[in-house]
């Protein structure tokens, strides 16, 4: 089994003082297992939601895959700040039927910056 790490893009340069920040999407087609981890600095207050789509990707003009959705929430939202004081959250995806996943941060208050946004694929 091999593991491949992928840096995930984020909107608004990962600025958690914005109303929403989307991290991903992360292609999870045709792999037996994947994980997504998000880290941050500062004092953001809001929610993180893992979302998935079964939709098929399209290619943009730069030939990068994009997923138009629709996106659906997977599991329960994670409230920030974490009660443990932690500064990262991870999701383990085993044999998902999704085509892609992404994480959406919705701000309530506070500020911060995404410092880590990675996905791992196990093949």
Offer a few descriptive terms:
single chain; 123 residues; mainly beta; Jelly Rolls; 5-stranded antiparallel sheet; 4-stranded antiparallel sheet; 11 strands; 0% helix; globular
Explain this structure:
The protein is mainly β and 123 residues long. The protein has a single domain (3-57, 65-122), classed as Jelly Rolls (Sandwich), CATH 2.60.120.380. 0% of the residues lie in helices and 56% in strands. The strands form three sheets. Strands 2, 4, 7, 8 and 10 form a five-stranded antiparallel β-sheet that branches. A four-stranded antiparallel β-sheet has the order 1-11-3-9, with no helix packed on it. The protein is globular, with a radius of gyration of 14 Å. It starts with a strand and ends with a strand.
